Structure formats: structure tokens, C-alpha cells
Task: structure prediction
Amino acid sequence: MTEFPANSLQCGRYRLVIDGPAFRPLVMGVLNVTPDSFSDGGRFTSLDAAITQAETMIESGVDIIDIGGESTRPGAPPVPVEEELRRVMPVIYALRDAGKPLSIDTRRPEVMREAIEAGADMINDISGFRAEGSLRLLRDSDCALCIMHMQGEPQTMQQSPAYEDVCADVTAFLAQQAAAAVEAGISRQRLCVDPGFGFGKTLAHNLDLLARVGEIQQALGLPLLAGLSRKSMIAKLTGKPDADRTAGSLAAALFAASQGARIVRVHDVAETVDALRVWQAAASHRTHETRKQRPA
Ligand code: 9MG
Result:
């Protein structure tokens, strides 16, 4: 298991355990407030529906709620910043006292600023905080930052993704952005990284990255978040593009956790929490038995 300099992630009002004996993989639940979301068909666009969905996630054992007002699926056009704010801000206000860390999925400094002022605990930026001024504005808060890798832009990123060496290129980008965050005055204890499955990547790129999640995390010395839930790679692997992607997503989340991922970002919270509990009980029992059998 990767050893981090500190065993917690500073996440706004919370300190999340990401290493050591008390660690278990954390579940980030997706709360899309976009009318065109690929995974929920826009069912949770109204405030009441979003709150109900968040409450269900909390009952199911979610650790972090990730609120997004801009669709990031391949081909999605950008939304105006005013519209993104109109979608996410009421949800932040409604959920800020719900007892769980709130993450805001945004690339826009304006949205980051308002979200932090309203009580958000984490910023999840699919562009890896490349927007001018974004790192500077987060310096004086204590929110966590999820630095994700994406090649290109959502509208065109799946047209012809290409890398010299996908793992090396992604790791180098994440290292560069983590260094930029530290340079801007942000402590490493507030950072996590994400290889960005499906964001400018072919199936082969995604599988290379998934197989090397542990290596990437170790190289960066930062907790890694894996978002594989309902991605097109799941449909490609099952060969059933229109089928329910839950079972495939669970397998992907478990595999990422087995490789050391500290956080998994998922749509199906209850199922993922159950699957991780069973996997972790079996895995830690096996470790315990192996230690018992070793001669002193
Ligand atoms: C917003 N969003 C959609 N997919 C994602 C993924 O894989 N990781 C992160 N951090 N955010 C994502």
C-alpha cells in the first residue's frame, strides 16, 4: 500500500482518512444537475429531486457528494457560467449542512469562488486547474482539489486521442499541476489526483491507466481518485452499449480500489458501498491470515 506523508486529505470542514489502519476506500457519489446528463437523463435537474438523490446517497453510505452543473460527457457543449451557477448554487446551499463533504465539479474560477464562499469542501476540476487564476483563488481556503487529466475538450476529446506513453504523459501532467498548486501556496495535504478515464482516451489508454493506478499514485505520492462509473469503456468491454452499466462499473471500482485508489467516483452508491465492504473484509482477512502464517 502507498504510504503518504500524511494519512488524511484536508477537505474543507473535513479531514478524510486516506491511509493507515483505519483507511477504507472512499465513495464519491455523482449528483448531476444538468438537463443533458448522460447517466441520469436529466432526472435530477430540479432542486427537490437533487436533494432527494443526495439524501439517498447519504443513507447508502456516501463519503463525498460531487455536484456538477456542466455535462462533461464526450461531445457536450460548454454552458454559460451564469447557467452553471444557477444550477449548482441552490444545491450547495441546500446540502451544506447535510453532514457530508460537498465537492463541486467545475472548471470555472467564478464558480469555484462562489462555491467555496457558500461552503463547498472540494473542487473537482476535469481540466486540472489550468484556468488562469484558479489556483490563486483557492489558496486561502482549506478546500481539497481534485486535479484531473483530460486531453482536449469534452466536445472533441474522443475524436483522436494520442499519447507517446499514456501513463507517463498523464503522470507528468498531474505532477506538473500538483507542483503548480504547491507553488501557488496550496498544501499537498489538500491535493488528490485523477487520471481522467474516458477524457481524451481510447479503450486501450483507459486499460493501461487502470492497470497502473497503483504505480501512478506511488509516483505522485498523492491519493488517487478513479472515475470509471458508467463510462463508455464499460459498455465497450461488455459489448452491450445500451445495457445497464452497473455491474461493469462495480467491477471497475473494485479493481481500482484493489490497485490502491483512495476514492472512487460513482453513480451507484449503495451497490458500490456494499461491494467495497465485501471486498475489503475479504482482503484484510487474507492479509491477517498471511501475517499469522509467517514465521516470527
Ligand atoms: C466530472 N467527472 C466526470 N467524470 C469524472 C472522472 O472520471 N473524474 C473526476 N474527477 N471527475 C469526473
Summary: Residues 68, 72, 105, 124, 126, 146, 148, 194, 196-197, 225, 227, 265 surround 9-methylguanine (CB under 6 Å). The first helix runs from residue 47 to 59.
